[in-house]
C-alpha cells in the first residue's frame, strides 16, 4: 500500500506539474512573453487607436532598465481579416522585427515550409498550417489582409506567402499571421508608431521586480504589464496547483491508510498473548506503543524507499515526454501542447514523503494503543 501510494503521488504529481509547465510555456511563447509595454486601454481593446505614439521614449527606458541579457522588440498586433478567392476569416495581424522575434515567441522555431520573413520584405507573410489548409493555399500564393487604419478607413494589401509555421495549438495556427513591422506600419498608416513591446527575461522570477521598475520610469500613459496581468486565468490556475496537489495527496493517503492500519491491526491481534506476557513481566503501556510505532515507521521507510525509486524510475523512463496527440483537441482546450514532459522537484518529493510518514504514524496510533490496552487476563483467554 505504501509503495503504490508513494509511486502514484510522485508520478501523477510530476505529470500534473508537467501539464502546468506546458500550459505556461505555450502561453508565454504565443506572443505573450514575460512583460508587455502598452497603453492601459490596449489590453481590453487592442485597436490601432490605442498604440504607442512615442516608441523612442519607450526604447530609451527599456535600454536603461532591462537586464543585459533580456530580449525585447516592438510589435504591431491588431485584428483584421485574411481573405483569398476561397475563404475569409478574422485573424490577428502581427507586425514583427524579423531579427528579434525568434527570441521572443514560437515564430522562430515553428517553421514548417518555406522561409521566415526578411527585414526588408514589404510583401511577405508567414501563416499557420491550419489557416493555409482552410484557405487551400500554399507557398508563393497571395493573401489579402484587411483592417482598420489609423484614419478609421478600411485598409487592405496583398501579401505573398513566404512561409508556413506549425504551432503547439491549432487555434494559434488559425489565428496569427506575421508580416514585417514596416509592412504593418504602412498598412495601418501610422508612421513609426507601434502597438506594444514584448520583453523576455532570462529568469521568470525576475518578472515582478522588473515590471515594477519599468512602471516607475515609463512615460505618462504607458504601462508595463507582466504575464500574470495578461493571463489572469492561467495565473489563478497555477496559484491553485499546490492546493490541488495537497488534496490529491490526502485522497491517495486515505486509500493507502486502510491497508496500513489493517496490516498493523492484524499484527497486533495475532500477538495478543505476546503483549499480555510483556505486560505481565512489567512492560509499561508506553513502551508497547513505542514498539508498535517503531514497526510502523520501519514499514513506512521501506515502502517509501521502494515507492520513491519506482516513481523516479517511471519519470526517467518518460523523460522524453508523453505524446497526447490522440487527445489533441482536449489538450488544446486547456492550452497544453501535445507533448507533456513529467517534472519532479525536490519540494514535491519531500512533500510526498512527509505526508505519508507523518500521517502514517498517526493512523498507526490506533493499533499501537490497542496493543497497549491488552491485559494479561485478556491474553490468557486466547488459545
Essential attributes:
single chain, 383 residues, alpha+beta, 10-stranded mixed beta sheet, two-stranded antiparallel sheet, 16 helices, 12 strands
Notes on the protein architecture:
- The structure is a single chain.
- The protein is of the alpha+beta class.
- The chain has 16 helices and 12 strands.
- The chain has helices at residues 2-32, 40-44, 55-65, 129-134, 170-175, 181-188, 207-215, 227-230, 232-239, 241-269, 272-280, 285-317, 328-333, 346-363, 365-372, 376-380; strands at 35-38, 71-83, 88-96, 111-114, 124-128, 142-148, 154-165, 176-180, 196-200, 223-226, 322-323, 339-340.
- Strands 1, 2, 3, 4, 5, 6, 7, 8, 9 and 10 form a 10-stranded mixed beta sheet that branches. Strands 11-12 form a two-stranded antiparallel sheet.
- A hairpin with a 4-residue loop joins strand 2 (71-83) and strand 3.
- Helix 1 (2-32) runs antiparallel to helix 10.
- The chain starts with a helix and ends with a helix.
- The mean pLDDT is 87.
Poorly predicted parts: none
Describe the main β-sheet briefly: 10 strands, mixed
First-residue to last-residue Cα separation: 31 Å
Strand content: 15-25%
Structural class: alpha+beta
Number of strands: 12
Mean pLDDT: 87
Which descriptor suits the 3D outline?
A: elongated
Q: Give the helix level as a range of percent.
A: 40-55%
Count of helical regions: 16
Oligomer: single chain
Spell the H/E element sequence.
Answer: HEHHEEEEHEEHEHEHEHHHHHEHEHHH
Radius of gyration, in Å, reads 31 Å
